[in-house]
Amino acid sequence: MTHLHLRPFGLPGLIPCLLVMLALYARPLLAVEITPGQLYDAGTSLTASNVGVTFSVPTGWRAGLPAGSEALVMERIAGGAMILVMAEEVSKSEMRQEMSQNVDLGGGAFLQPLAPPSERADGVLTADYQLLGGQVPGQGAAYTRIGRTGVGVVFFAIDTGADRGARDQARRLVDGVRFSEPVAPPPATGEGAAAWSDYMRGRYLARYYTGSGYHEKTELWLCSDGTFHRSGDAGGFGGGASGAWAGSSAGRWTASGAQPAQGRLQLQTDEGVATYTLTLQGGKLYLDDTQWLRGDNEFCR
């Protein structure tokens, strides 16, 4: 079985992928190639051309492909529901076998199948799961459609609330997914030589950390007028952890240097100045060797 860009099961460390969806911002209503580190809002038509799969982000949901992950992650804005989207070249018998196994979510959490997968009249494979080993109880369901090209796409729903919002939405997604002949993805365009001050102006950035059931999130808005706003919070996965905190700050920012060389970002507040080294590696933005996700700035321009 040939694994392609997005792979369904056996994804250790998936909890960091889930946490990356805590705060995403609006994207234009255009068909776009799924790109690691980019964030997409409701209504965006997403395409993975290397597997020939196209679908749209549902209303009330946001999506993104964390760098290094093979699973696209959708999270309901209202919370309590999540969908993982994965694809591979696979036969129906192979997919039945994979859907009969536990799904490792990392950090000790996993989804356990409640029964062997079943097949709908239209050929879609379905399976129900329970969430075990996490801080928050939940349930899961998988909906898999295999297209004429031999590529199977899985919409994996995880609900941690009382309703079944993820399950219902995943069912709609599998009914609406479109298949096409897989093609090689277009080459990534280089960032080119540009002043770091121009590149960072108007940016929204987000950084996430998770480990042993704990997570931190930091968001940064760099406004075109030279001001910035920063917010962050931390706590346990699913909430309710002791030691949780939240905070925010504001001040002025400057960036110096020009690409492709390293740049320098300075954030000045009443408490002092914080300085970060800026680099672009493979089209990904790093501050002091830590990757930050980029999204549309809906707070300021």
What does this structure look like?
This protein is mainly beta and 301 residues long. It has two domains: 14-179, Mog1/PsbP, alpha/beta/alpha sandwich (Protein Transport Mog1p, Chain A, 3-Layer(aba) Sandwich), CATH 3.40.1000.10; 196-295, Lipocalin. It is built from four helices and 22 strands. The strands form three sheets. Strands 2, 5, 6, 7, 8, 9, 10, 11, 12 and 13 form a ten-stranded antiparallel sheet that branches. The longest helix is centred in the middle third of the chain and has 12 residues, at 165-176. The chain is elongated and about 60 Å long. The model is unreliable at 1-30, 185-191 and 237-243 (pLDDT under 50).
Mean of residue pLDDT?
80
Query: Total number of helical segments?
Result: 4
Which structural class fits the helix and strand makeup? mainly beta
Named CATH architecture of the largest domain: 3-Layer(aba) Sandwich
Helical fraction: 10-25%
CATH class of the largest domain equals Alpha Beta
Please name the CATH topology of the largest domain.
Answer: Protein Transport Mog1p, Chain A
How far apart, in Å, are the first and last alpha carbons? 47 Å
Order of helices and strands: HEEEEEEEHEEEEEEHEHEEEEEEEE
Inertia-based shape? elongated
- Biggest sheet features: 10 strands, antiparallel
User: Quick one: CATH superfamily of the largest domain?
Assistant: Mog1/PsbP, alpha/beta/alpha sandwich
